[in-house]
Structure to design on (196 residues):
């Protein structure tokens, strides 16, 4: 992930009262190990990608709560996806948990205002690794979700065979997603889904 302000291996850092404008990438990225950071009262606009990206690790057993407890508060995020990368939300979270996204104003976005995702359960099942993944520009399939296959396989088939079956509906895979307990509230979203 590229960003005007790229942070990895950080705790208790603050980005506040900044203007992050006219970049070809994200405004701020909290990548892999990033805990208890605060992104507050900033303007992020005319960005090639999205505003703030929180990216932990892919599904597994040893990486829970590595990207966690971050606060995205009272930012003005606008005019994203100009690279053009249309899949650009104002705030994107993958493999990140216990975050608060509050009181932000987000407008003129090609995609969603806030996107919080994990990996679909079928793709975590060892019987169908990356079932719904897409190849990257270099022909790699494993990079989309970053599944920590050795950790998932160590759970045993009595657990993993339940991932993604019609009866399970993804419930058994939730503890290994590392994308839980996020709160998004009191945000204002205007003119989103403008391109997709």
């Amino acid at each position: 992930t590229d960003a005007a302000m790229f942070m990895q291996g950080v705790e208790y850092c603050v980005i506040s009262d900044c203007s992050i404008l006219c970049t070809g990438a994200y405004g701020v990225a909290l990548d892999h190990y990033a805990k208890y950071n605060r992104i507050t009262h900033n303007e992020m606009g005319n960005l090639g990608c999205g505003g703030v990206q929180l990216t932990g690790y892919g599904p597994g057993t040893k990486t829970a709560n590595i990207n966690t407890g971050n606060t995205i508060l009272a930012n003005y995020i606008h005019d994203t996806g100009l690279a053009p990368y249309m899949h650009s939300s104002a705030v994107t979270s993958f493999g990140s948990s216990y975050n608060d996204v509050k009181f932000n104003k987000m407008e003129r976005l090609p995609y969603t205002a806030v996107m919080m995702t994990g990996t679909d359960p079928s793709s975590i099942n060892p019987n169908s690794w990356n079932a719904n993944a897409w190849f990257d520009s270099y022909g790699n399939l494993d990079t989309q979700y970053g599944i920590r296959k050795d950790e998932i396989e160590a759970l045993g088939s009595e657990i993993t065979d339940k991932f993604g079956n019609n009866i399970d509906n993804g419930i058994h895979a939730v503890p290994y997603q590392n994308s839980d307990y996020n709160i998004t509230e009191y945000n204002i979203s205007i003119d989103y889904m403008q391109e997709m």
The longest helix spans residues 149-153. The first strand starts at residue 3 and ends at 11. Residues 45 and 71 are 19 Å apart (CA to CA). The chain is about 5% helix and 35% strand.
